[in-house]
Amino acid sequence: MFTSLLLRTISGWWKFAIPEYTLTMKILITGAYGLVGSVVYQHLLKVKPEAKIFGLGRRRQISDRIDPRKTFDIPENRLFISDLSNLEEVYEILRGFDTVVHMAADPRPDAPWESILKSNILGTYNILEGSMRAGVKRVIAASTVMVSWGYFDKDPHKSIRLGTADSQTVEKYRILPTDPVQPTCLYASSKVCLEAMAKTYTSTHPISIFCLRIGAVNSEDRPSPGCRDCWCSHRDISQIVEKCIDAKPSAKFGIHYAVSESLWRSFDIESAKRELGYVPLDRVPG
């Protein structure tokens, strides 16, 4: 009896000290064989050994955006195969998960509408609706800096992106998460839809969703000349996802730019610093 009481007391204190959903967390990463999804999956395996990490992909094959020398595999008992087009199937997969990191999408800026509709819009709806029905507590959803791409059609943002603006101009005109979106392709438009759906679900259901406007992540993990203003390193995309997972349970909704540091950084990351504690680990040289 004493032992039972002691265990109940310890258990009660432990749950009070640490949010309950962090104790035996079960996490699903969709798009786990994609470039960003694979980086995040492998990072979470290292930093959350106590958690049960699962992956989901359309097929058991790594993306052609990944350097073939960096191959990895997901154990069969930790992998789901789905294209996310069937809501009931998605719901059954999501039952029992605490957190979903939704990275699955067709990332091509020139992708045809049929693929965008199925993969990015219907797939996202099924993840959010399925998560709500299954009792998932938090979703971290991949948006993109490309929702703001239209700003670069004219100055001062055009000059900032080209690296010809002075430092005062760069700091003064950084694009905020609250600025109006300016997508210039269907892919970016689908991510605007994702953000709107996320807001709808957090406003009407007891679920927390963070939307990350992810910058230029590449297999080489180094900035190319054309993305000095929006590069995001593997370490930085991994740590901002981790910080979203670990954010306090009362944090219901947020849209944040996920980019590394740079003298030419076009996007404001103060909200991510303030609300998530995100501070870039890497920066563009220069």
TrEMBL record:
The lineage of its organism: Bacteria, Pseudomonadati, Verrucomicrobiota, Opitutia, Puniceicoccales. Gene3D superfamilies: NAD(P)-binding Rossmann-like Domain. Its EC number is 1.1.1.203. Keywords: Oxidoreductase. Pfam families: Epimerase (PF01370). Belongs to the NAD(P)-dependent epimerase/dehydratase family. It is an enzyme of class 1 (oxidoreductase). GO terms for molecular function: uronate dehydrogenase activity. PANTHER family: DTDP-D-GLUCOSE 4,6-DEHYDRATASE-RELATED. This is Uronate dehydrogenase. Residues 27-222 form the NAD-dependent epimerase/dehydratase domain. The gene is udh_1.
